[in-house]
């Protein structure tokens, strides 16, 4: 089932309202606790759905341009509101365009997560901003947030992340190709968490029962795995994603053991802060590079694919550090830049194939 | 340390002013043929401006080791650093100088070779390239002891300063100003106040002295006065003809950016204001000929092509009388109350145009257009400044629709001439001017 019929069915069968959510980080637990379906909008990929993309300059990333075109085309009319996390300058500005200039009639809600989140001031602000967002979401949901439901939602998302982490970490023993694995993981962007959990449990049961259709492990870091043909090309060339650091996927899997707390608001803030380091939250490069190096080491990756969306400043600023990090470890790096095209270019395909061929040599050294 | 301090003070108070005076004398003696130009003779204050900025950069060469040095973003609440005795350096200002000198491609090439994308802000590439190559039109910048970054102008500065912190291995203080949709919520202001308090603790530790709160209030008062004086200078362009051009404003902006909160800055703007008022009284305009049309400029200047653009327009009687960019510093400290620098500072620095939503920007554009009597607007679509540029397509349409003024969206990059198509832009500007007839 695709998104729009699913949204309608959720409304008809469960009375659930839905919220379109722009990338990347947001407290999904709040939406779940308020019985709101989150439907994430990562572009969508492919050609812009309307001329409204032209209202934003071509030097702005395609996630933002496509999202405006999508909202203007009526593509998200089935939802009840749109949530704009404060991911970057472009999404921050985008948040004011649909309702103020493009005629989007539904509520638009910003969510401002603090940058450099380790500071005491940032923690206090996050706690207050979460409550402020909850108040706005209550209006969309037409119901009050109950602490017990928030605690249950946090537990549900903890369990989801447990399964997602297990699938990513045990990837080498999972008999799925990358496209199928990512399709599963990314259905969490729009499925009701309970439905997503059921699929994850089923997939997790297959761990240890087989192998991916390729043998050369690579680490992939970037924004979003689009176009998904990238994964097919990788598999076809003999490599598979053994470690994931996509903003859309691995960087949102909370793995840390957090101190137990009876206060669900505290638990919610802790959970937001426990996610892996992400440049869109201005994570320090030191911890992020150590995190990436750890992923590469644990997965046995023989190469690193940096896959960014053109003009994405948070990602682009970390690229030199990523190069330095893996040059020091003698791990080859392939840099790919895209604009959410529907298909990979022939040039990109050739580069991926050549890269895999290079790292598949003796010892995988470049 | 003592020798270094003597060198620094000598550069700031003796050698620098002497060299500046010498340069003035040489300039006066030099018989240059008058350049063909549509502009009125330069303001007399320009000489004082050049002297002031020259002394600032010259003394900066001797600042490290003599006094604490902070590298600061243009929107950072600098008053606390000023009070703690920091010599402040503005990498944006330095990058703009690199842009005017047209050395950015060479600087950018150096960092692109390390994996920095050409799609990153050209100020960042200029600055990091200058660090890597050692090339700078101002000789050298002093090594920072502290980096002070405020996100009220963009998130880019945070990534930029994070990179600088790694290079210099010095503390980075961040003031993360939540973007304001509509009006600021109380918890957002509280967050900024909390961060200011955190920043002061770190700045005190680096400077090895406590912040004198009384002196801090006085610096805040000076800062507010400086912003106010700068605003009055800009306001003189409401007169017809405007006594200067918007381009003059880009350059005379230097002190309120780099020396805000000092008496020297305010003294300079008093002099400038007197001269502008005198020009207004005598009916002297920024253009030699008739000021036929009055324009608004939106976004950063195109530093390497400002003369090219304004000469083309000025030769046909088009003058920039107001810019959103220069206006930002008239706003920067305007809400600060010396009696309550923290909360009022948090409000003031959070509410500058780039940290507010597009309806607020539209209101500002419309207000400036009305108050300065602009009948046209050029919106610089700046590929290096997304927060300033996103929304311009709609803003341009609204300005044209609501005010009936002519508008032009001009594609460029504020610092990297490789993104500037001179002929194409000239054609577009030509067509824009024709639309007035």
Notable characteristics:
heterodimer; A: 366 residues; alpha/beta; 4-stranded parallel β-sheet; 13% strand; globular; B: 437 residues; 55% helix
Task: Describe the structure in your own words.
The complex is a heterodimer of chains A (366) and B (437). Chain A is α/β, with parallel strands linked by helices and 366 residues long. Chain A has 14 helices and 8 strands. Chain A has a 4-stranded parallel sheet. Chain B has 19 helices and 8 strands. Chain B has helices at 2-29, 45-60, 79-83, 91-100, 104-112, 122-133, 156-168, 186-207, 213-235, 246-252, 254-258, 263-282, 306-314, 324-332, 341-350, 358-371, 386-389, 392-403, 422-434; strands at residues 69-72, 87-89, 146-150, 172-175, 293-298, 318-323, 376-382, 406-412. The longest helix of chain B is centred in the N-terminal third of the chain and has 28 residues, at 2-29. Chain B starts with a helix and ends with a helix.
Précis, in short:
The complex is a heterodimer of chains A (366) and B (437). By secondary structure, chain A is α/β, with parallel strands linked by helices.
Rg measurement of chain A, Å? 20 Å
Order of helices and strands of chain A: HEHEHEHHEHHHHEHEHHEHEH
State the helicity of chain B in percent bands: 55-70%
Round the Cα radius of gyration of chain B to an integer and report it. 21 Å
Which pair of chains forms the biggest interface, and how many residues does each contribute? Answer: A-B, 51 and 46 residues
* Biggest sheet architecture of chain A: 4 strands, parallel
Q: Based on DSSP secondary structure assignment, what is the total number of beta strands of chain B?
A: 8
Poorly predicted residue ranges of chain B: none
Order of helices and strands of chain B: HHEHEHHHEHEHHHHHEHEHHHEHHEH
Low-confidence region ranges of chain A: none
End-to-end Cα distance of chain A: 43 Å
**Assembly state here?**
heterodimer
Mean pLDDT of chain B: 94
